[in-house]
Amino acid sequence: MQTNYFDGDVAVGYDAGVAAMFAPNVLGPTIDVLAELADGQAALELAIGTGRVALPLSERGVHLHGIELSEAMVDQLRAKPGAERIDVAIGDMATTRVDGRFGLVFLVFNTIGNVTAQDGQVAVFENAAAHLQPGGRFVVEVGVPHLHDRFDVFNHTDEHVGIDEYDAATQRSWSHHYSSADGETYHRRSIPFRKVWPAELDLMARIAGMRLENRWSDWDRTPFTNESTKHVSVWRKA
Ligand SMILES: C[S@@+](CC[C@H](N)C(=O)[O-])C[C@H]1O[C@@H](n2cnc3c(N)ncnc32)[C@H](O)[C@@H]1O
Question: Of these four, 93, 100, 180, 220, which has the most CB atoms within 10 Å of its CB?
């Protein structure tokens, strides 16, 4: 049973909190790649959230469905123009099925890591493959684990201090968010993740009957190298 870390105020504040991820230079290439890979067929977004990616992709004419654990995130999505074009099922992306077969299934913004056990991540790949037509594609965007840094301060303002904690031995990690209204008293919220290496993801894909077709270091399709801190990977169903 997955815990919902994106409920209540977290869902209400989500879009503002990740405003940088809405920037045209981030979202534009994401939508370009996904629209091209959908190739006129219906697409399914796992963990669709507030529709950051799904809404502009649907504006490009891609017929979209979504699966999402948090009803509160979907409430945010449903309040936006264009949401009526997208069918969303509430549930765990490892097990929830929606009707239809898709040319593209995608899972972006590190969200495979929100499933914190290897078995669960394998189940996500199997569920993605079960929704794909033969030849359909599964796309994942996720960071590359780092071997040594245990703590990484990724944001530091009076209102918010963000620290990622990572344990390389177990591949477990936590994003700690310290939030404050007055710059003095802080409230902590910690979200657990399971970090996963590209090669492990490739094995999960093989278990689910898919093979790697492309791996880029970002949505601009630059090659994945030793220096890459994240990857966008595309697996294709046989
Ligand atoms: C970082 S947000 C990404 C949302 C959206 N895809 C985006 O790019 O903005 C992570 C989302 O994953 C959802 N989520 C986490 N675990 C999930 C699961 N097991 N099944 C479905 N959704 C899940 C959360 O509720 C949240 O909406």
Answer: 93
